[in-house]
Amino acid sequence: MAPINVGLMGYGFSTKCFHLPFIEPNQDLNVYAFLQRARAPVDTINMETGVHVTADYPHAKHYRTAETFLADPAIELVIICTNVETHAEFAEKALLAGKHVVVEKPFTVTSMEADHLIAIAKKTGKVLTCFQNRRYDGDFQTISHLISNNAFGKITECEIHYDADSPAWVSKWNSPGLIPGEGMLYGLGSHTLDQALQLFGRPKSVTAFLRTLRSIKSETDDAFTVILQYDGDQKDLLVTAKTTIVSPMERQMKLFVRGREGSFLKFDEDLQADQVMAGMLSTQLAFGVEDPESYGLLSTVKEFDGKIQTFDKRSQKYVGKWPTASGRYLGYYEDVVSAIRGNAELRVKPEQARDVIRLIELARKSHNKGISVPWS
């Protein structure tokens, strides 16, 4: 079967770090075309890598306008890596042009835009999905496994962290006002809130606190705490998603889960992005494999796995460093291909991406009004 022709809109950091390294090894995908507005340079031979697609991908087609790019009938799958305010517009145009679509996170700026795209995808019969690659993080795969195997019994608390101590890239948020789609809640929050929804479902209510901790006056948040409360069988559950840019720690906290039968505490982020930036190929055996030093600590009332845990007399618990599953972003595009070809159900459904955006909207509403707001 011929590979699927891929067209990428945008040639920035996201395209080069999070998409191409996991598309190129996939034999079912062909990097066919790019949208990059910059004019092709005259001298591409001596050009630095990563500047222009015509130098890095000389065999791919180069388009400078969205209109000519989307008019190419050979493009079958469009990957949107442009500024967030263009996501909904470009996704709609691509779907109406008969393309399958992957949208970089955040999916859209508003849930209304997301609902509109979902309706178009259903009408056209094309695959529409969001790039929630963090579902393929080793730590998320690990906690999903432990929860599904009832390691904690009835869970009462879960904290999902994604902290970055004084990251240089927040300096681009220099507007005093709130620009729709900007800030940590839309950025890193798109990942942690998606993970929370995947693990526990829609909450009963949302309570949020947003902050601006960088040294400027701005309504664009760079730190947030979002608390999700549940009802029914999960009425005792409290889920917290947190990000801050003030975190001078040796190792950043990642996951903390407590239940009636056990707990899990883990530090350190998934390493796949760092490995790509260091030049490692996503097909290398060591790619996505975490150092045992970063394994999370599993403590349980009863023995969960005798090969990993030992009985700790002081705490009277079974304790052990639980191996982190290997992170594998390659799996994201493998799953997209399977969905396009009708071999498997789409893993990251657009309705799930829509719920993340709705959760962001409710969090902002909660913060602005200083109240807990119900899911709606």
Could you characterize what this model shows?
- There is one protein chain.
- The longest helix has 20 residues, at 350-369.
- This protein is an alpha/beta fold.
- It contains ten helices and 16 strands.
- The strands form two sheets. It has a ten-stranded mixed beta sheet.
- It has helices at residues 13-23, 53-56, 66-70, 87-96, 111-124, 138-148, 189-200, 272-277, 330-340, 350-369; strands at 4-9, 29-35, 61-63, 77-80, 100-104, 128-131, 155-161, 205-211, 223-229, 238-243, 253-259, 262-267, 296-300, 310-312, 317-322, 373-374.
- It is 28% helix and 23% strand.
How far the N terminus sits from the C terminus, by CA atoms, comes to 44 Å
Global structural class: alpha/beta
Quaternary status of these chains?
A: single chain
Helix content: 25-40%
What does the average pLDDT come to? 97
Q: What is the β-strand count?
A: 16
Strand count, sense and closure of the main sheet? 10 strands, mixed
Question: What is the structure about, briefly put?
Answer:
Helices cover 28% and strands 23% of the residues. It is an alpha/beta fold and 376 residues long.
Key phrases:
10-stranded mixed sheet, alpha/beta, globular, 376 residues
Task: Give the SSE layout.
Blueprint: E1 4-9, H1 13-23, E2 29-35, H2 53-56, E3 61-63, H3 66-70, E4 77-80, H4 87-96, E5 100-104, H5 111-124, E6 128-131, H6 138-148, E7 155-161, H7 189-200, E8 205-211, E9 223-229, E10 238-243, E11 253-259, E12 262-267, H8 272-277, E13 296-300, E14 310-312, E15 317-322, H9 330-340, H10 350-369, E16 373-374
Parallel strand pairs: 1-2, 1-4, 2-3, 4-5, 5-6, 7-10
Antiparallel strand pairs: 7-11, 8-9, 8-16, 9-10, 11-12, 12-13, 13-15, 14-15
